[in-house]
Amino acid sequence: MITVISGTNRPNSLTAAFSRQVVTELKSQTDEEIQLIDLAELPHDYFHSGMYDPEKTPTAFRALHEEKLLPAQKLVVLSPEYNGSFAGAIKVFFDAVSVHEYALNFKQKPILLIGVSTGRAGNLRGLDHLSHILEHMGGYLIGGKLPISLAGALVNDDREVVDSATKATIAKQITHLISI
User: Fold this and answer.
1) What residue ranges do the domains of the chain occupy?
2) In this structure, what is the dihedral angle of CA atoms 168, 125, 19, 2, given to the nearest 10 degrees?
3) What's the rounded Cα separation, in Å, for the pair 3 and 135?
4) Could you report the per-residue pLDDT of 88-119, keeping only the tens digit for each?
5) Dihedrals φ, ψ of 122, to 5°?
6) What global pTM score does this model have?
7) What pairs with residue 79 in β-bridges?
8) How far is CA 178 from the centre of its chain?
């Protein structure tokens, strides 16, 4: 199983648009099961002071964790640029799952990182920050980081990725991830 994490809780985000493109590309290149964790669809009741207590974890969050993250053999993490880094929602998500089967969440799993930004750097700084966290939790980052710059110009009004060069670059990174 390959799980894609759309790393913002902002509805209808550019990150979600590129996450859907990654899912589409994965499905075109492999017969492996593909799952999407869209942080915009997470139950909001998991973020509370008791989130570090497995006994207080909401059932919906626990199910998402057990069905989409733990069984994943590979991950694709997409992160928007927020204030020169990544969205706080993804850090909270990582913190929440870290108290549940810590070693099984990311340890030795190949991870492709993709940054999404309306600016020129494709969230490279945020990807650097995120890579340190994922490596600390045991993830194995592959193939460098894929920065997607000027993301708003690469999608249509329906939030579909339409830029052929960007789609080709994503396809190449997915091919590399699948080969591992």
Assistant:
1) 2-179
2) 90
3) 17
4) 999 998 988 888 778 889 999 999 999 999 99
5) 60, 25
6) 0.94
7) 115
8) 16
pLDDT in the model for residue 144: 78
Q: Angle at Cα 14 formed by Cα 105 and Cα 104, nearest 5°?
A: 0
Q: Quick one: DSSP state of residue 84?
A: T
Give the phi and the psi of residue 174 in degrees, each rounded to 5: -65, -40
What CATH class does 2-179 carry? alpha beta
Helix H or strand E segment including 86: none
CA distances from 40 to 43, 79, 93 (A): 9, 13, 11
Residue among 5, 139, 142 at smallest CA distance from 65:
5
What CA–CA distance (Å, rounded) separates 140 from 155? Answer: 30
**Looking at this protein, which amino acid is placed at residue 33?**
E
What number of residues does the chain have?
180
Cα angle 39, 121, 36; round to 5: 20
Contact yes or no for 21/11 (Cβ under 8 A):
no
Q: Give the pair of three-digit tokens for residue 61.
A: 């969050």
